[in-house]
Automatic annotation (TrEMBL):
Coiled-coil intervals, chain numbering: none
Protein name: Putative cell wall binding protein
Keywords, ordered alphabetically: Repeat, Signal
Bias-annotated ranges (Polar residues): 28-45
Region ranges (Disordered): 28-57
The keyword Amino-acid biosynthesis belongs to this UniProt entry's keyword annotation: no
Segments annotated as Cell wall-binding repeats: 208-227
UniProt signal peptide: 1-25
Length: 271
């Protein structure tokens, strides 16, 4: 019995010693806390870097070349054009001319085509940027050109304005005949869809007006060259596609095979 008690006491003493050795080799709570605080402190530096980056980003926001420039296109008049310039910062209000920016020199702002204006920032903004707008023509207000403005371009033609530049996406009147110069500056022929209207330019590039037969169908084009649709012109009706209706009823009116309203025929006759 005594021997067993002695063994039990010896085991307890051994365990106590083992626990003492283990504790003496470990970290104290204060040491662990100290190292953790150091890690947080060293992690504070990237936060300062982020603040500097944020400051640089805010500075970049003051660069006027990153802003949205809006300038409305204007019609050709033969005089210098200087439309209003609008400058917007994304997410902020419109900048004020004379306070936040100045409008500088305009170039190419008389003849049809793309014009340019220089926009210069004022403090606290900085930099400058080029704004662009188009001086446009239309079928009823074409560019008044002279016959010597034509320049052959392969199997087609271009037309040069008074500044010696080719007209692009513009209408031109030469000797009373109206032409359209396409996006490549070349004279257009055939069907043309432009600004919500439809036009037809013959083989010579001239915009047709009045009645015109195209591919065995008749169409009507007004004085500006726009195709008529969904309406009566005289005693003939132009359908949604622009083709003249033939041998059919348009409401209570009958148009014969020649496309002419037959006033003698009524729907009662059909019954």
């Amino acid at each position: 019995m005594r021997k067993a008690q002695f063994i039990t006491i010896a085991i307890a003493v051994a365990l106590a010693c083992a626990l003492t050795v283990s504790c003496s080799g470990g970290e104290t709570p204060s040491q662990a806390t100290g190292e953790g605080a150091s890690a947080v402190s060293s992690g504070a530096q990237p936060s300062a870097d982020l603040d500097m980056a944020s400051s640089r980003t805010q500075s970049d926001y003051r660069d006027i070349s990153t802003y949205t420039i809006r300038i409305q296109d204007v019609p050709y008049t033969g005089e210098a054009q200087k439309p209003q310039v609008e400058v917007y910062v994304e997410g902020l209000a419109e900048l004020v001319e004379g306070k936040d920016f100045m409008v500088g020199e305009y170039t190419d702002n008389v003849e049809p085509g793309m014009a340019t204006v220089v926009i210069v920032a004022m403090s606290p903004y900085y930099g400058e940027v080029a704004g662009h707008f188009n001086i446009t023509t239309s079928p009823d207000r074409p560019y008044p050109g002279a016959a010597d403005g034509w320049v052959q371009d392969g199997d087609s033609y271009q037309f040069m304005n008074a500044a010696g530049q080719p007209l692009v996406n513009q209408w031109c009147d030469v000797d009373g005949k109206v032409y359209f110069l396409g996006p490549d500056g070349r004279m257009a022929t055939g069907w043309l869809d432009w600004m919500g209207g439809r036009y037809y330019l013959d083989e010579s590039g001239v915009a047709v007006t009045g009645w015109e037969e195209i591919d065995d169908a008749w169409y009507y084009f007004d004085d500006a060259g726009a195709m008529a649709t969904d309406r009566w012109v005289g005693d003939s009706y132009l359908t949604e596609s622009g083709e003249m209706a033939t041998d059919t009823w348009v409401g209570d009116s009958y148009v014969d095979e020649d496309g002419v309203w037959d006033r003698t025929k009524t729907k009662d006759d059909e019954d």
